Amino acid sequence: MSLWRYRDRLPVEPLVTLGEGDTPLIPAPRLSARTGAEVWLKFEGANPTGSFKDRGMTVAVSAAIREGAEAIICASTGNTAASAAAYAARAGLRGAVIVPEGKIATGKLAQALMHGARVVALRGNFDEALRLVRQLVDRHPISLVNSVNEFRIEGQKTAAFEVCDGLVDPPDALCIPVGNAGNITSWHKGFGEYGVAPQLHGFQAEGAAPLVHGAPVAQPETVASAIRIGNPARWEEAMGAITSSRGLIRAVSDAEILDAYRVLASEEGVFCEPASAASVAGLLKYGAEGRVVCVLTGHGLKDPTTALDQARSVIPCEPDLGSVEEAVMG
Description:
Layout: E1 25-27, H1 29-35, E2 38-43, H2 53-66, E3 71-75, H3 79-91, E4 94-100, H4 106-114, E5 118-122, H5 126-137, E6 143-144, H6 150-156, H7 158-167, E7 173-177, H8 182-193, E8 199-205, H9 210-213, H10 235-244, E9 248-252, H11 254-267, H12 278-286, E10 291-296, H13 304-310, H14 321-329
Parallel strand pairs: 2-10, 3-4, 3-6, 4-5, 7-8, 7-10, 8-9
Antiparallel strand pairs: 1-2
């Protein structure tokens, strides 16, 4: 099974696929007890390259092949780069990704490089990278696969279909991290096509919260690298989705994101990347009622450095029973 079971709702045929979609929808009893809501986790980290980006990439790259493209390109904070590189490799296309120098998590950089993409480290931020690649594709026959590509939105909307089908009845609210704002736009489109209208609660990191402040952030900063974006490409669509769904857009601090990150791993057994935890941080801070789905956009192994910084230390031990017993029993 994959998201292509919804092919009648998608604009292209599956010309390149890695079996993306059909990700776990996990009940979260401890978060439910903390919040008083019925909380579910949509774990998009179970996609082939470990993030929700694969949903849009399978459709965008299939469309690029149909249109005769020989290469694809994207600007990325990491997950789009990993996904684009994988699908380019699968499709036999040349792939190039532009990432902010020193601002991409280790796991994501490793993926992009291993899949054979041409990785360019820009001495600037994501917003500058996206502006430059948009100019580049105007000059060369390269397909741009960022979320400004409408086919990306088409693929990502399938997550909403899966949630509605999985729960039978739609949720009352959806909590979701917001960076470039393509994902919240996609969920809104998907719910709309299913004829349902949950409240959409979007959460940005305090240091990268242009939608909250109503103005671009020139130098966005946050531990949640996947949403370290100061001028979202889907700004208007995202705000329209939030407004029409009677939802909200709020900011959470890095400390709140990291606390939710640890709670998810240690209490619910779900290891997501820091940006994913913004959805849960927002729920814990601002609350929601009824049945609530929190979107976890990427796997924790995307950013092993942050995980090791936040986790307990490894316990050294001598190779004898007494030492092992002491180390294990504490």
